[in-house]
Each structure stands twice: as structure tokens, then as C-alpha cells.
Amino acid sequence: MRLFFISIFLVCVVFAANDVHEIAKKIDALGSDDTLSDKVTYKVYDPFKRAKPLLAKKTIKQKVIKPKPIKVQTILNEQAFIDGKWLQKGSIVHGYKITAIKKNIVVLRHNKKEIFVPLYQGKNFLKAKEIIQ
Predict the structure, then answer these.
(1) Do 81 and 74 touch, CB atoms closer than 8 A?
(2) What are phi and psi of 94, to 5 degrees?
(3) Where does the pLDDT of residue 98 fall: very low under 50, low under 70, confident under 90, or very high at 90 and above?
(4) In a domain, 44, yes or no
(5) Which of 84, 105, 112, 122 is most buried, by the most CB atoms less than 10 A from its CB?
(6) pLDDT by residue (tens digit) across 44-83?
(7) Is 38 or 92 the better-scoring residue by pLDDT?
(8) How many CB atoms lie within 10 A of CB 72?
(9) Structural domains of the chain, count
(10) Distance between alpha carbon 37 and the CA centroid of its chain, in Å?
(11) pLDDT of amino acid 65
């Protein structure tokens, strides 16, 4: 029985030696390592390629709402006509508190920020004409 296994082992070794010898001949026929890398190309599979768009951070574009500029259209008797409303000292407009109303300027304050809004010099609000006598 031992002899049988030893003979099978020797036959396998002989066939394996022939296969190794043939493989070595094929490698020599291809040439050196430089030419081997030029002839053989491998496509590398990236398992995360499909997941990259899912993992990318999505940026949501939000509309930036710009506040309307505050226009003081008229100042009359310690009241100011701002954005279609007559306001006085202490009133709140666009989150700012009116702290003072002067001849040509309205002073607004929010926290520690103070804004001086001059009288709007655009179209004549009251559309009054000067009467010459």
C-alpha cells in the first residue's frame, strides 16, 4: 500500500515538473518584465464606485432673501413715513427700533448696531407744488 502511494506521488511530481517547465518557457517567450506589463492590462474593479454619488455631501442651495432697503420718504411732526406707514420714536421697522427722528435723518438701533437712514431724495412723495405769490 505504501508503495502504491509513493508511486502516485512520483507520477504527480513528474507531471508537475513538466507543467512548470512549460510555464517557464511561456514566460521567457513573452520577454522581460517591462514588456510583460505593456502587454497585460488589468481592469480594477472599484466596489465603491456606485456608492460615491450616494456618499457625496449634498449641498442645498437656499435662496438668499435680501431685506428691502429702508426708505424714509417723509418726516413730519416727529413722525416718519417709512415703507407706507407713519412711525414714531419707539416703533419697530424691519427689526430695528426707531431711537430718534431728526430733521433729515431717522436713527435706527438693533442690539448694539445703530443705523442712520437719511431722508429719501427720490420722487416727490406728496407731489406738492410750490405756490408762488
Answers:
(1) yes
(2) 50, 35
(3) very high
(4) no
(5) 105
(6) 888 888 887 777 777 777 777 777 788 888 888 889 998 8
(7) 92
(8) 21
(9) 1
(10) 42
(11) 75
Strand stretches in the chain, DSSP E: 72-76, 79-82, 85-88, 92-93, 96-101, 105-110, 113-118
Amino acid at 98: I
The CA–CA distances, whole Å, from 66 to 17, 63, 69, 125 equal 83, 9, 9, 25
Contact of 101 with 89, CB cutoff 8 Å: yes
Q: How many CA atoms lie within 13 A of 74 on its CB side?
A: 12
The per-residue pLDDT for range 22-40, each reduced to its tens digit, is 767 766 776 655 555 556 6
Structural domain containing residue 92: 72-118
Is residue 53 situated within a structural domain? no
Residues 6 or more apart whose Cβ sits within 8 Å of residue 102: 75
